[in-house]
Amino acid sequence: MFQAFEWYVPADQRHWQRLLSALPKLKDIGISNMWIPPGCKATNPQDNGYGTYDLYDLGEFHQKGSRPTKWGSKEDLLQLFAKAEQLGIGIYWDTILNHKASADYTERCMAVKVDPDDRTKELAPPEEIESWVGFDFPGRGNRYSSQKYHWYHFNGTDYNSLDNSSAIYRLEGKKWSEFVDKEHKNYDYLMFSNLDHTHPEVKEDIMRWGEWLGQELKLKGLRLDAVKHYSDRFQLEFVEHLERTVGSEWFFVAEYWLFSLKGMREYLSRMKHKVSLFDSTLLYNFARVSKTRNADLRKVFEGSLVQHEPRHAVTLVMNHDTQPTQPLAAPFALWFKPLAYALILLREDGYPCIFYGDLYGIASNSPHHPQHEPPSCRGKLPYLCLARKLYAYGRQIEYFDSPSCIGFTRLGTWDRPDGLACVMASASLGKKKMFVGREHAGETWIDILGLGMNRRQGVERKVIIDPKGNGEFACGPMSVAVWIRTDAPERHLFNVPL
CB 3.0-4.6 Å disulfide test: which of 21, 28, 147, 235 passes with 205? Predict the structure, then answer.
């Protein structure tokens, strides 16, 4: 999977066009599915889409200062989908269902302030507030949906224009959902106008929108954003509704930003394992190991979702929430990025997701992020993706027997017999004697990455496989090497820029 954006992509309304141009090369390196950013109309033309205003406006109507979204027009979006389908690349839609933002007008209602640190605790008696909770979508009118939103479609908000005060308000007569994360005692409310998914009109409109989206766009799945913050019972109903109607073969992945393996597994159980989760525990393991002196590489998967639920773990190294300057930023030591990507791309467990900012770099068009960051892995991430596409098949043998140097081999299959060997080290030169198969005896294998490899460190650039099918594979200090046979199919692709 490819996450096809980062937080600071330019707000030039040309991103769908950029992705359209990139599709052929993404296909070449092995991208089979692409997670695109939220394409619904948001608060303004610079909004990344998480401040959702109108789910039914995909860049088609002039609303909130622009016809296109930050990412582009609906016409550009449809061209992207058509080309992706032609190339056999599936697209996952980023779905925000917990709130609405940038209302069209205010309404008065009764509400009670609650404690931000304990949302079950009321701070004052009910009071009348005037809040931005009225949505009539004047640019779209009744096209696609005639549903309008009023205060009674929400259970919480964060602003009272009568006295210009900001607080968390629970609307009178409403309850927070019980089926949410228990941080702050109840984490139903996150931001903006918080939808009440128990209201029949809200529920019906969202279910209808899901069907409509699946008819408008040839999707292969959905990413469910911020699932900690709205009812997982509703989420299950939504997923099952789409499975019955437009998404019988769709893939669903949820963003549950939780650092508890137990909590993630309980969520998967409540969702009947109909969704996968991003493996946040593994991501933070990577970040911690990268910055810990003498860290034990053997323990990098400890407590991770992929270790316990490999079929439901989407593995990643970074995303838009954890990139530099973001609230959940997970700072990485640069030397470790290639190791982390090798661990998620070349091993058999998990569904790896690579990040736009790691493949193309992170833009510098924000005062919060004034410096451009180049592509990570010293530009070798496309080679790691290609190695997965060509050689990462078959039985896996692990060599996690040293705290500072680990390795593994993939032995190939009857139709993909080439296999590979991967070795990585956290400190000094790394060497492993590893088995790749007796059928490879006498073959010459080479490293396709060339990171930190030179003979002055005692690293040979070629390995001869012995009669028993073993090779002495090496990598440079704080580095990773991926070895394949010299005459492996399409090896020449690793000698040209990708």
Answer: 147
Average pLDDT over residues 468-472: 97
Q: Six-digit token pair at 74?
A: 């609906």
**pLDDT tens per residue across span 75-126:** 999 999 999 999 999 999 999 999 999 999 999 999 999 999 999 999 999 9
Question: What is the C-alpha to C-alpha distance for residues 67 and 72, in angstroms, rounded to an integer?
Answer: 9
Please, what is the average pLDDT of the chain? 95
pTM beyond 0.85: yes
Query: Hey, what's the torsion of the CAs at 479, 4, 91, 322, to 10 degrees?
Result: 70
If phi over 0 gives left and psi between -120 and 50 gives alpha, with beta otherwise, what is residue 490? left
**Are 362 and 372 a contacting pair, CB within 8 Å?**
yes
Q: How far is CA 70 from CA 78, 365, 399, in A?
A: 15, 14, 46
- Write the secondary structure of 287-331 as one string of H (helix), E (strand) and C (coil): HHHHCCCCCCHHHCCCCCHHHHCHHHEEEECCCCCCCCCCCCCCC
How far apart are alpha carbons 259 and 319 in whole angstroms?
16
What's the mean pLDDT in 351-364? 94
User: How far apart are the two ends of the chain, measured CA to CA in Å?
Assistant: 18
Which residue, 304, 262, 264, is CA-closest to 284? 304
Q: What is the spatial distance between Cα 283 and Cα 288, in angstroms, rounded to a whole number?
A: 9
CA neighbor of 239 nearest in space, from 228, 261, 254, 217: 254
Percent of the chain at pLDDT exceeding 70 = 97
State the helix-helix crossing angle for 74-87 and 15-28, rounded to 10 degrees: 10
What amino acid positions are annotated as catalytic residues?
225, 255
